[in-house]
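User: quick one, fold this
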Amino acid sequence: MKVLLKQDIEPLGRMGEVVEVARGYARNYLIPRGLAVSVTRGGLKDIKEQQGVLEIKAARERERLQGVAEKIAGKRVAIKARCSASGKLFGSITTRQLASEIQAVTGEEFDRHKIVIDERVRTVGVHHALLKLHPDVHIDIEFDVEGEGFVAEEPVGEEEAASGTAAAPVEGAVEEVPEEAGERASSVEFAEPGEAGGPAEIESQQDSETE
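Assistant:
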């Protein structure tokens, strides 16, 4: 069955083109949704007129989308996502998120189905995507994925170690004893019982004084 396309439909064809499709597909999907009209022998004149109107409409739409492409190319597109300290995302960036961000920065409504991302975006940094705005308007864009929701782990530098901001002492480590305190401790000698100056001699002296 022949139909006249009223919109660009991949992979069928472009707006204003007459294409051959399955009868059930035309009657159950394309025609009820206003995407195409049937082409009959008796209505060829009307089809030609509609075709001319659609070609003008298609040219205007292509021109409009070219302007949208230029607007997108001049904007910075950035998406924030939760990630680990190493920069790995908790999930991946979707075409829906990218379409939403493009719409936010350009003010243009954008269809996520026109975005192609070659591989899953699972890390922070700069990534690429292809925007198929129109069969004649394709642009490659860069977008930034910015991490949030984590605390960066930074090693202690040489300057911090030199300034005295060293790490806390490890549990169980022997603390360094000052020299003076060590000398005082070493000068005290404890006599064994029974030796001169020992506990036994001190007790006998106390008993004699009592008597």
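User: anything notable?
Assistant: Strands lie at 2-5, 18-20, 36-38, 77-82, 88-93, 115-116, 121-123, 125-134, 137-148.
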